[in-house]
Each structure stands twice: as C-alpha cells, then as structure tokens.
Amino acid sequence: MAFLSVIVPVYNVKDYLTRCIDSLVCDCSSEDCEVIVVDDGSTDGSGELANHLADKYDIVSVLHKPNGGLSDARNFGVAQASGEYVFYIDSDDYIEKDGLKTLIQVARQDNSDVVIGNFYYQYSDHADLFDEDAPKHQIVKGGEESLSMLIEGKHYQNFAWGKLLRRELAQKYLFPKGRLFEDTYWFHLILDSANQVSVVSTPVVRYEQREGSISFSYKLKSLDILDGYAARLKFFCEKYPSLVDKQKVLMAENCISHAWMMIRYLGEDDKKKGEEKLKSVINDYGLADCPLLEKSKRRKLKMILSNMTLFKISESIEKLMQRFL
User: Fold this and answer.
1) How deeply is 12 buried, as exposed, middle or buried, from its count of CB atoms within 10 A (0-12, 13-18, 19+)?
2) Taking each helix axis from N to C terminus, what angle separates 244-265 and 295-306, rounded to the nearest 10 degrees?
3) I need a surface site. Which of 35, 115, 152, 207 has the fewest CB within 10 A?
4) pLDDT, tens digit, for every residue of 182-212?
C-alpha cells in the first residue's frame, strides 16, 4: 500500500497537464506515492497525453470516464486510492519544489488526520503567497478549534487541494456533484472528524489564475458558494453553536461581495435571479441581525434587501475613495 495517493482530475487541460504531473513525480520520486489521473471525458487530447505520461512514469496511472464534472472525477479517483493519505490537485496547477515532500514528512511525524500547507496564487507575471504570516508548524485539535480557524480563513481555506487527508476521511466525505465551490460543502465535515490538524508555512501548490478555468469567471452559479456556507451553518447550529455567529459574519461578507460582482458581471436576467438569491439568504439566516456584524456591513445588507441601486452607488463611491486615499 502506498503512503500517499494523489488524485488529479483532468478535463481539457492539455497545455497544463505535463507540468502538473512532472512536478508531482519530481516531489514524489523518493516517496511511497501513487498518482491517479482521472480523465473526465476530455475532448482536447488530454486523455491521450495522460496515457503517455503514465507510460513514462511508473507511479502514474490513468482512469478514463465519461464527463461528470470536477466533483465526480475526484470521487471516482479517490474510490481507487490505496494510500494512507490522499492529496488532491487540479491539473492546471502544479507543485512547488519540496512542498509535497514537506507535507509527507509532517504527516509521518505528527500522525495528524489532516496536514495543510501554504500556497501561491500564480499569475502570468507574478505570484502572491496566500499566508505571509503562516506559522512554521502548528498543530490544532480537530473539531471546534480547526473549524474556527477555517471560518477565519487566515491560515487555510476550503480548497480541496493542497492538503493531505487521511484516506478513510477522504473516502467517507465525497464532493457534491454539479456544484461550484464544491469544497465549501465538504471541508468542515473533514475537520469535524479529524483527530488533529497540522498546519505548515511551506508553500505546496502553485494555484494557476487563468481565464477559462472553473473558478476564474463569474457567473450566476457562483452563488453556489452561499449554499455551501448555509450547509455549514446548519451543521454548526446542530453541533457547534459557538461558531454560528462567526459563520454568519462570513456569509454576510460573501453576500456583500457577490452583490458587487453581480452588478459588474451579470446580465439583467441573471442579476435579478441573483438578487433574489441574496435576499433569500440574508433573510432566511438572519444575517443582518448577527450581533458580531459590523454596523457598516449591516447597512450594506439592508441596502441589498431594499435598494440595489443605492447599494451600487454606495459601493462605487467607497471603492473610488479607497482608490485615491
């Protein structure tokens, strides 16, 4: 049995796949790893390229399936995993040298159910480190402590990739099919079941910021993230009531952010649907009444509920002032 199973979902990323697999093999060559590439019905030759890479590297294998989306591809791959740990990476991203190797060393040392690394937002002309103040090596308890840190989002976020997960947890908690931001429905369940979580400052993944990727373009379906956060809120209401208000603040901030994004990027029909969605979330979960919410953000929520035109004017003025101050 391998120590680590790496799951790489692939759909029409021929231009990026070799870089991703080469980076994995480079970091895993001295470790006990298997790399499982899941071709999710690619039509650009990615599947054939994956076969070529599997012929080139002994640790790489390829599974081919009809297109079912990112969640379905990950679920399909993890079902075949045999490693003690599972690591997800998207096929247009790649591993920072020695990053994955560091996570493996920490997993062996700490025996944590989850091991999380830092990462770079990789742009065409530069890269930004996600957490410049990351603790070099921190161990936190699974459950409430790790979940509170997830809400804060300073040292780690929902992303499925960039984390070592105990295989039993990865196979127990699968991704919802047909959703964007599928990891918002998922990672709190992993942390709830984890014995402990290790967090390190070492950058592990280069997260490619490219046009055409699922996460890059804004669309009405981007509001799926609010459904994921609502599922997390309901979970907290039942099991971690002390985290409910912190989660509501996060949801409120997301509603404000999405309201502005809708104004900028959606057509009129989708904008109306989006407004109704935001109003429903704000009202159904009492976000404007959250005692932890700042007054300025509470006013913004009330503008979204009553007058989106006023919200647009207010936000435009605020962003203009920030630009020149």
Assistant:
1) buried
2) 50
3) 152
4) 999 999 999 999 999 999 999 999 999 866 5
